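Predict the 3D structure for this chain.
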Amino acid sequence: MRTTFVRQTLPRRGVRSWWGKAWQRAVEEAAYSDAELRPGRASARRGDVGGISIDAGNLLAAVREGEDAWTVEIVVPTLEEDSRRALVDVVAAESGRIAELLAGNLPHDFVEHVEEVGVELLPYGGEFSATCTCPHYLDPCAHALAVLLQVGWLVDADPLVLFALRGLDREALLAELHERATSRGASNEDRPTSELADDVEIVVDAALRARRALQLFESGEDLPEGLV
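Done. Predicted structure below.
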């Protein structure tokens, strides 16, 4: 499912998470040289990139440059079906993992576990394939690098953006976890199916409430009644 994010502004505290920094390193690896990376960084920080549209394996955005505007499309490999199932298995294997992901945290040991079963979640520079309507011949050009850098800001704030890019967005992940909980419940005599299935929904609701509360707290807004 394609999701479009509004125009991004440079995070006040910069990229802070280890996975956000890993994404930034991948962008640096993808750059042909500093001659493209420097203007790409400047363009991202100026806010030259428009709304970023994200779908499985695909990024799309427009980038301003003076009086011109260029269209950038970036392709990222998605997970094969076996890898997709393995990723969901790892999420489901330990209580609390989905809550952490929904709360905006990507535990390092989780990624290590994912890699142990052969799933590459974090990209490396060579995986990005970009096209741009500008006349530059390099892949990626400075405009594509600006888009990738801003996507890194999105990834830093929400690691599930990585899942979506790899072909498993938030809704699909939750649906698969719910289906597994229901299937387990059907063969569990001690706990009814509905109780097991509801476990996922309870965790999701709690995680989303916690994340919203944190966003409001950081922005200095009052917490609405019933949120906590």
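Residues 193-219 form the longest helix (27 residues).
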